[in-house]
Amino acid sequence: MQIICPWCGERSYEEFRYGGDATVVRPTASEAADDDAWHEYIFVRDNPYGPHEEWWYHAYGCHQWFRVRRDTVTYEILSTVPANHRSGDRQA
Amino acid sequence: MVQNTYSLFNLAYNAIHRHRHWSTAWRKPEPASAYDVVIIGGGGHGLATAYYLAKNHGITNVAVLEKGWLGGGNTGRNTTIVRSNYYLAANARFYELSMQLWETLSQDLNFNVMYSPRGVLNLAHTPGQLGAFASRGNAMRLNGVDAELLDREQVAQRVPQLDISDQARFPIWGGLLQPRGGIARHDAVAWGYARAADALGVDIIENCEVTSMQRENGRVTAVETTRGRIQANRVGVVVAGHAGTVAGMADLRLPLESHILQAMVTEPVKPVLNTVVTSGAAHCYVNQSDKGELVMGGDLDGYNAYARRGSPAVVQDVVSSALSLFPDFSRLRLMRTWGGTVDMSMDGSPIISKTPVDNLYLNVGWCYGGFKATPGSGWVFAHTIANDEPHPLNAAFRLDRFREGRALDENGAGPVPAAH
Lengths: 92, 420
Description:
The complex is a heterodimer of chains A (92) and B (420). With 92 residues, chain A is mainly beta. Chain A contains 1 helix and 6 strands. Chain A has one helix at 35-42; strands spanning 2-5, 9-12, 17-21, 51-57, 65-71, 77-82. In chain A, the strands form 2 sheets. Chain A has a 4-stranded antiparallel sheet, with no helix packed on it. Chain A has a two-stranded antiparallel sheet with strand order 1-2. Chain A is globular, with a radius of gyration of 14 Å. Chain A starts with a strand and ends in a 10-residue tail after the last strand. In chain B, the strands form 3 sheets. In chain B, strands 1, 2, 8, 9, 10, 11, 17 and 18 form an 8-stranded mixed sheet that branches. The relative contact order of chain B is 0.18. The chains are: A mainly beta (92), B alpha/beta (420). Chain A binds chain B through residues 1, 12-14, 18, 20-21, 35-36, 39, 42-47, 49, 52, 54, 70, 72-75, and chain B through 242, 244-245, 253-258, 302-307, 311, 313, 346, 402-403, 415-418.
């Protein structure tokens, strides 16, 4: 599998570390005491069959975290953006 | 059609008659319109569930729906190791039920599952690890599981092929042995359970994929399949790799992720290794199959995946780890590598449970280690479905344990699915 780093381009996946599902959001202060919110955040995942938003880290490269939209069935990289971009700013 | 019993007499009879009179091992029935229990998934666990529903609970109006062929998923892709060397009491007791069932399974099913109690040895590579193994071995013994702590000389005596020199990349300080652990033939387990369940009246329906579930008033009532609609009083989901997809048909979101796990075998050679050897530090495990192949596996590829293929880098990692332990194997050639999709739960333990949907039951999330649990998993899941409440041995494997703060985290790795 090849991962596309937004800074370094297409590289072998061996250079990267996987950071998991990028759609989970830590509970806000107002939800902090809510067991359901913590349960969702810590344990429950959509685990989609198909496109998946995920974090990758270029461990043997530029040391940057970034978001990748990758198909979990075909392994195709659909988009890749630096970590500080909002999901609306996705670029190819 | 009445099944033949597999016996010396029948073997001799059929040998004389040129093997023309063997009956087929199981029927190929058309799906009926309704069943008392529908099991989704015709792997070892689903077939064992159907068998024990019929045998232990007298529920024989059961269908097992398999989207491909029997044992074609993870049942046929694992590395066939059976063991119950767990630290946590809930795990040790649950897996020990399977160990006890393995010991008489061939006789019970009248099918040779080739259970071979050749011992499972975990290698310790530091004094600290050996101390942790002593602790785990004591915990196992307190739960009635066999365990022996070996020092370096005892390990060398039992597995002389290991590099125990001081120059070894992973120096060996000793190991924890479960003598009753070993291997069994994975295909035979699926076939044996299928044949025995079929003989008790269970319908096994292959090439039948479930596409949706129907619910009324919060209870599941039917499944739509590629071979038509099937009504069901109760539905058990026993799928590997696609647990989230199938549970999603009933709007359940699960605490797990699907990942890829690879395994591989070398060309077959004469008997050279009579113990299952595992090393957590080297990230690999090795055993020799009855055909003579050295069977190896290691870590996950490490990213969410539904495709049953992984990276050659992981194959190389496993092989190089195995060779650091067994330098003599360096001239063997790999014959096959393959991948399977495993449902990694958030604490490394399976989910065998009722669900928020009435009459819908889950037996999923087996992570690395579903094969060894096949008999016990079917036993307790059949109990859970038949009585609408868990067996004492799977009471700890509830779906809501994560929310309740009762995770069964054997490795203490935290809620990271790829870490177990």
